[in-house]
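>> received
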Amino acid sequence: MSSKELQMEYDHYNYLNNEKWKFNLPIYKKSSSTKVFDTPKVSVIIANYNNEPYLEKMFNSLVNQSIGLEKLQILFIDDKSTDNSAKIVQKYIQKYNSIEFYQLTKNTGGAHGPRNVGLINARGKYLVFLDADDWYDENALQYMSETLEKSSDDMGFFGIVQSVNEKLSLKSRAYFFDGNKIDRDIQELPAAFYEWLGPQGIMVRRKLIENNNLHFPSQRVADDVTFFYEAMRFSKKITQGEKLTTYLNRDNDNLSLSKTVNRDFMISWLRALGYINQVFPDDASKEKFLSRRLEWLVYNFGLRRDVGYKFSLKRIIDFKVSMDRYLGKLKFDPTIYFRTGARKTVWRYLLLEDYRGIIRFNRWHSLRHLLKKYLGIVRREKNQYYYPVLNSKIPKIEINMKAVAIKRMENQVVIQIYTNGIFNYFEIRNKLRPFERSKLMVTQMSLTDYKINIPLEIDLRDYEFWVIYNDYQDQKIERIEKLLSE
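>> returned
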């Protein structure tokens, strides 16, 4: 694809820094609470399409915020839902202040249109973006805004938990694991920071958005990550807060969502990465961002068989050709930031254009993964575990970490760790409240063996034990519950 053709494509999807996006906004009708405030502290932008089952939980988390409704502007933008979303919103408008309801007259097919309507109408000093099926901790907006208020930064990142059928787990650990920080240079952020960049847990000063004409490109996927990465680049430094703020709803994940990972999904992501690569200078931040996103795409289109773009030789060739079209030849090696050996191997095959090699590797690796997952079959060499070796012609792939409890001695447990990474510490987490976490006392006994102290004053049935190692990766300790119950 020529440079001119790329520019035309970026222009078509409203990537470019011009005013065009403002003139292409969806048409809407607006209704509001009886009382709204001219100068709110925080504007909450919510894009919705058919999220009726989750709206009451989401709205309840907003109207009960400790910051108070008089400091909020709640912009609910509905993308012409076909369910009863409107009835629920009207119920809250009649009962509470500060809610503005924007009803689009046509469906835009993604969150970008509603979010851009929110940007144009926002009045708050700070902006947050909440998906309509997610919800906030009751102190979230007060904590986020007060934390940014104390810093000179234009952008803040805060703690997230993921909810899958009411089971909670930590999400985007790089946002909060380092504790409270201000003026953190984005060039110094770890690669793990770029895994997420979704709307959850992020607050931005409105002036940053307006001064840099930031907006969401007109495509269904990658619009939010593009927006927030651009915001980071213009912010240059960020604030981080260690407290829980946001609950990310993932009840509808798994098979239904995996089918949306199709060819349009692939092209949209590559278009976004190509634009970022074109606009911003070569530096550490861009390398890490592109690398983590490319690793994710390699996983989806080089290894996965359960997505909406059927695994085949055609898919692999299309993926490589499309990468070349949008990104050209990269000036760095992204695999230094890849987390798994399997993804590094697929990348090497792609560079060699050995597409049938990927087919062979994928077949063998899928089988090895199943042997490990369901039968526990692994191979150990010295201080490292590997997936089962089934064919000497297929590259040997390390397992990132294996942590196993092997012996209990009163209030101590011996843990064996085998990893190609760097061990940091052991952690205990509350199963129902995973942000309740603390480090455990540890003694290293040998290269692989560690002895940890177990806090017997708590009900251990309510807790999980984890190993934290480099790049914010974690691993649940195997067999420890069995030892502690004996």
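>> The first helix runs from residue 3 to 12.
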